[in-house]
Each structure stands twice: as structure tokens, then as C-alpha cells.
Design a protein that fits this description.
heterodimer, A: outer membrane lipoprotein receptor (LolB), chain A, 2 domains, twelve-stranded mixed beta sheet, 18 strands, globular
Chain lengths: 373, 277
């Protein structure tokens, strides 16, 4: 029974399924095509490495705001993210460091001239802020509801060193090249787009064959000279080992009210004394002991050696201070070596010796063991 | 004629909404959602234990500021209670009518299948807005009753006044309801596949859970931005200073993609289906 009407109905039915086939195809095509079009490499005038470095040196006192994303793939095991909305007590040093090493971060940066900055690290349902307004620095942690404040010495602002003002950008670039040339090859490899801006990509390749770093790529805004992205590649790893850069940037001056911080009611306010020359404003809690760490070697092969009393973390099993879970975590991450334990990532090696000494460097563990002897 | 044509979808929608919100089940679900902030507020009020830094986000702030009850309740409800209720409503849309034997009569009226699908989707979307609104309003009310009300401290550490709080709360309700539209579209599609409403509801809710589990596994990070649950907790971006709109836009695009894809699938299925009941 070749019923023409049945055929029409059958064709009609096929037509009605068409949107269901076309819609996903359109959505996927749009999701792929739109970012691809935005990332086409721009055509820029040729520049030497010196000229690009001069461009960077010329970029101070800029005002801008933007979103920064940081990601790392250090070959460490990834841990499932903690359940949604739960505030884990991530205050211990080990878990903070582990979080920095393995997790990805998004932050917003607001800069108005040389003296006003605000960095917001956007965590899930939480935020950590660092606000600098002139000589006053505030930090705020929304999870802990903790505020710290520091007054910087007025004669030494953090980023405008005296040499910056007396040397021209070109002279600074020459100095920088002279300083890094012995250990590193510097090349302008290509142009690209970062955060929608045309950039020059400067590639730094270590001359030493012993380091774990394969090369460092610096993306420099072609117009303003602001470094927009840094990527570190590790030897023998396809994926980027470490990457931090702007995902969006806006060169208008941020609202002044962003830099006026008043501690919220109910927050714990701690006044931190002015940092001494050796340490920076509460950023790295690594160097808090009295014994100072020493640097062995030069350039990319340098190894930082921390004497027993300087290292906060002790070898698991022997220390009574570290909690059981921390010790277990360390035990899982590290491998036993002669006289201690070692942590090997694709970019960094750490050697924890039983006598309390710690060696860190962007070199294989064998080099650390040699340095420890 | 033309006036009747343009007037009919609204008439259909309003009758659909009346049916939906008169249902005892719908009211019970909204009541249960209102209980979430009330239980949280009472629990915090009767326990005198200080802020231990544990539990859902914002819970430590409640004793300082009652308005945070709403945020805590939202954080708690988004992973489970909201998708549960939206899944029930969305899964019931077509399958429920088919099960009751009323689908035939709806289609005999010259409403058309497409129009019926759109009306069903819009009604389920309005339920999602109502559900979120109930949590926020109940949270603010019980918070104001049991705790002091102060200017709200944002995640960035800045403090905002009452007007700003109202605007941000409205945006928040918008964000959370928007987040649920993708799930609503999925539920609508599943509902066209079956005449057993419970099956469609369960499948929708299971998908929401499965998507959230996949979102928590770092090994699947490549597909994370494509999961409809990925931005669900991004509402926190509205509590930053200044508001971060990245997530809002991204989430809107993502949900739109799900609405287009599953809307088209639902259209394909529903317009070619033999309606037997």
C-alpha cells in the first residue's frame, strides 16, 4: 500500500527532527569558532629581544584592571575538589602549598598608577584580598574573616626602585639582557593574542642542560609593554607546567573607591610590623626561621638549601608537631631516598633530609643529593 | 482572529500557572524549600557553639548578620533541593498530562504542540524563579526575626547598604533561576519520552546529580565547562566588589545552549510522537 499521504507524513516527521540535529551542531560550532577567531595571530612590526625588553621597562605607572588565571600541571596527583560550599579549614602550611601547586586559581587585579593596587583571589564562595593604597597594605581573608594591615616605609615603595627612574627603558633592557645572557638564550619567537591584545612572545631558554625547565615564554603587550602572560614548560612534558596570565584586561583607571578599604565589623584585625629587607609583605611564610637559607650554584641550576631550624616542615614520622593527616599526605607525595624523602614534580624537586635540612631546586633529585653531601 | 491568536498563549500560560501553583505538591515543595533557611536559622540560634570554621559557607556570619541566612540556605539548596523540586516540575510537564490522559484534550484545542511545549517550559521556569525567591525571602525574614541586621560584608571585605543588598539579592535570584533553566529543558525533553511522570522526574534529578559528580572529578576537567551544573555556585561572584559578571554571562550562554539543544530535541520528539493518551 504505497500511500502518498503516509510518505508525506514520514517526510514531515524527518523534517521535525531537523532542529534537534542542527541545534547541537550550531552550538558546538559556535563554541569552537568564536574563540578561534579571537585568537588569530596578529601581524606586528618585527622587534628584537632588546626592543621588547625596552618596551617592558617603559611600562610603569600604568593603570589597568583585569582577570588573571593561573594553572599548573606539575605531574602531581590531582585531588577531587571538596564538596560544594563546604569551607575546608585550609590554614595549614602543607595544604596551602599543595593547593598552590596543584589547583588552578582565578584572580582579579586592579592597578591605578604605581601606588594603588588591589588583588582579589577568587575562591569558590570565598575570596582573599590584598589592597595597597599608598603606603598602607591591607589583606583580607573572607573564610577566616581575618584582616591584617601593614604600613610600608615611605622611602622604599615596593616596585619603584631608584634605578628605574634614572635609567631609560632601553638602558634597562640592555642591563637585563647582560644579566641573563650568560645563562639564558633570549628570543622573540612569535606574535600572538593574550586576553584579546596583540603580544610579542619572548622565549627564555636555559643554556644549562641540568635544569628541569625547558623554556619560559613571556607574552608582552605590543602597545603598552605590560607583560600579560608567563608560561613555564618543563623538560619532557607536553602540557604547560605552569602558566599565569591575564584572561581579560581593561586599560581604563579603576574606581578609586576600590582602594579604600575599611575592615568589616566582626573581623579580626592584626597589625603586622613593617617587613624587614629580607622578607616581603607577608606573602611567603617559608623563610620565618632565624637561620637563613643559602643558595648553591648559579642561574637555572641554583639550589636553595635550608638549614634544619629554618624549615618549618619536618620529616614525617620523626616530627610530633605535624598532624597525622599532614604526615600521611607528605608520605604519599614523597618517595624515600637515602637519608630522607624526596618530592619530584615536573618543574621542581624537594629533598627532605632526616636531619631536618631541606633542598629545593629546579633540578633533578640527583643534583640535590649531590649538593647535600 | 489575530487578537485571539496572540491572546491564546498567555491564556494557556496563565491557566497552566494556575494549575501548577494550585497543586498541593507544588505548594508542599515550596514549603519544604522555605523550611531550609528556617531550620538553618533555628539550628544556629539554639547552638551556642562559636564559629568553628566548618559547615557550609556563610554559616559563620549568621550570628553577626541575619541576612546571611538567605545565602547559607541557597548554598545548601543549590546542589540538591532546588534541582530536586525543579526536576519534579520539569519531569511532570508532558508525561504528567499523558499519564492523566489530558494530553489529548490539550492538543485537540487549537493550541498546537510547539505552543504547548513553550508554555510548559515557561511555567517550569517560573516555578524555578518562585522556588529561589521563596528561599531568599524566607531566609531574610527568619534572619531578621532571630538575628541582628547589619550592613552586609561582601566576600571582598567591603560593606554594602540595604539598597545595594536588595539589588544584589534580586540579581542572585536571577542567577540561580537562570542556572536551573538548562535542567528544566532537559526535564522537558525527558518528559516527552515517557508517559510515566515519576520516571522522567527521577531521570532528570539523577542527571543533575551525575553532572555535579562529574564536575567534582579533576580527571574530567576537559568537559567541566560544558556541564550545566558547572556554574551553579558561581552566584558568589555577585557578592564580590565589584560584581564579577564573567560567570553570569558564561552561565547564561551555557544555559541557553542547553535550552536550544534540549528544546530542539523535545520539539523533535513531541511533534512526531503519536499521542495515545
Amino acid at each position: 500500500m504505497s500511500n502518498p499521504r503516509a510518505e508525506v507524513i514520514a517526510v514531515n516527521k524527518t523534517v521535525r527532527w531537523l532542529p534537534a540535529i542542527i541545534a547541537p551542531a550550531l552550538v558546538v560550532a559556535g563554541a569552537i569558532a568564536i574563540p578561534a577567531a579571537a585568537n588569530a595571530a596578529p601581524v606586528l612590526p618585527q622587534k628584537t629581544a632588546q626592543q621588547v625588553l625596552a618596551l617592558i621597562a617603559g611600562a610603569h605607572n600604568a593603570s589597568y584592571s583585569g582577570t588573571i588565571t593561573q594553572s599548573s600541571d606539575l605531574g602531581l596527583p590531582q585531588l577531587p575538589s571538596v564538596g560544594p560550599g563546604s569551607s575546608s579549614s585550609g590554614s595549614s602550611t602543607t595544604s596551602t602549598i599543595l593547593d598552590l601547586l596543584t589547583a588552578n586559581h582565578t584572580a582579579r587585579l586592579y592597578v591605578a598608577g604605581a601606588s594603588k593596587e588591589r588583588l582579589q583571589v577568587l575562591d569558590s564562595l570565598a575570596e582573599r584580598d590584598v589592597i595597597r593604597n599608598g603606603s598602607t597594605v591591607w589583606t583580607y581573608d573572607s573564610k577566616m574573616k581575618a584582616v591584617t594591615t601593614t604600613t610600608l616605609p615611605t622611602h622604599a615603595p615596593a616596585d619603584a626602585s631608584p634605578s628605574t627612574t634614572t635609567l631609560s627603558p632601553a638602558q634597562l633592557a640592555d642591563k637585563a639582557i647582560a644579566a641573563i645572557e650568560p645563562s639564558t638564550t633570549v628570543d622573540v619567537i612569535t606574535t600572538a593574542r593574550v586576553a584579546g591584545r596583540p603580544v610579542y612572545q619572548l622565549e627564555l631558554t636555559p643554556k644549562s642542560g641540568n635544569t628541569l625547565v625547558s623554556h619560559v615564554t613571556l607574552s608582552v603587550d605590543a602597545v603598552t609593554g605590560l607583560p600579560l602572560k608567563v608560561v613555564v614548560d618543563a623538560r619532557g612534558q607536553q602540557a604547560e607546567a605552569f602558566s599565569v596570565g591575564f584572561s581579560s584586561i581593561d586599560f581604563s583607571t579603576p574606581a578609586a573607591s576600590l582602594f579604600d578599604f575599611t575592615p568589616p565589623s566582626g573581623a579580626k584585625v592584626t597589625t603586622v610590623p613593617v617587613p624587614t629587607k629580607s622578607e616581603h609583605a607577608g606573602q611567603h611564610p617559608k623563610t620565618t626561621g632565624q637561620a637563613t637559607p643559602t643558595v648553591i650554584g648559579t642561574g637555572w641550576d641554583s639550589i636553595v638549601a635550608m638549614p634544619a631550624s629554618a624549615s618549618g616542615a619536618k620529616v614525617p614520622g620523626t616530627s610530633s608537631g605535624a598532624s597525622a593527616s599532614q604526615a600521611k599526605l607528605l608520605g604519599e607525595l614523597t618517595t624515600p631516598v637515602a637519608g630522607g624523602r624526596a618530592l619530584q614534580t615536573s618543574l621542581l624537586s624537594v629533598l627532605l633530609l632526616d636531619d631536618g635540612r631541606v633542598f629545593v631546586g629546579a633540578v633533578p633529585i640527583a643534583s640535590l643529593e649531590a649538593a647535600a653531601k | 482572529m489575530s487578537q485571539a491568536e496572540s491572546g491564546r498563549p498567555l491564556a494557556l500560560l496563565s491557566s497552566e500557572l494556575v494549575t501548577l501553583f494550585r497543586r498541593r505538591r507544588t505548594l508542599a515543595m515550596l514549603g519544604a524549600l522555605a523550611l531550609v533557611p528556617i531550620l538553618i536559622a533555628i539550628a544556629v540560634r539554639v547552638t551556642t557553639a562559636g564559629n568553628s570554621g566548618r559547615g557550609p559557607a556563610f554559616i559563620g556570619e549568621i550570628t553577626q548578620n541575619g541576612l546571611f541566612v538567605a545565602f547559607t540556605a541557597l548554598t545548601v539548596s543549590i546542589p540538591l533541593f532546588l534541582p530536586l523540586t525543579v526536576g519534579v516540575v520539569a519531569g511532570d510537564t508532558i508525561a504528567g498530562e499523558a499519564n492523566l490522559g489530558t494530553l489529548r484534550y490539550l492538543l485537540i484545542a487549537p493550541a498546537g504542540r510547539v505552543r504547548l511545549l513553550v508554555v510548559k517550559f515557561v511555567a517550569a521556569g517560573i516555578f524555578a524563579i518562585a522556588a529561589t525567591l521563596v528561599i531568599v525571602l524566607a531566609g531574610v525574614a527568619i534572619g531578621a526575626a532571630l538575628f541582628p541586621i547589619r550592613p552586609v560584608t561582601l566576600l571582598s571585605g567591603d560593606t554594602i547598604g540595604a539598597g545595594d543588598f536588595a539589588i544584589r539579592s534580586a540579581l542572585l535570584v536571577g542567577y540561580v533561576s537562570l542556572s536551573l533553566l538548562g535542567l528544566t529543558a532537559i526535564g522537558l525533553f525527558i518528559s516527552t519520552l515517557t508517559t510515566v511522570p515519576v520516571g522522567a522526574m527521577a531521570a532528570t534529578i539523577v542527571l543533575a546529580a551525575a553532572s555535579q559528580i562529574a564536575d567534582a572529578l579533576p580527571q574530567l576537567s576537559a568537559i567541566h565547562p560544558w556541564l550545566f551544573t558547572h556554574n551553579w555556585l558561581g552566584f558568589a561572584d555577585l557578592l564580590r566588589n565589584p560584581i564579577s559578571w564573567d560567570n553570569y554571562g558564561q552561565n547564561a550562554l551555557l544555559q541557553l545552549g542547553y535550552i536550544v539543544v534540549f528544546g530542539a530535541l523535545a520539539f523533535g520528539r513531541f511533534s512526531t510522537k503519536d499521542i495515545l493518551s
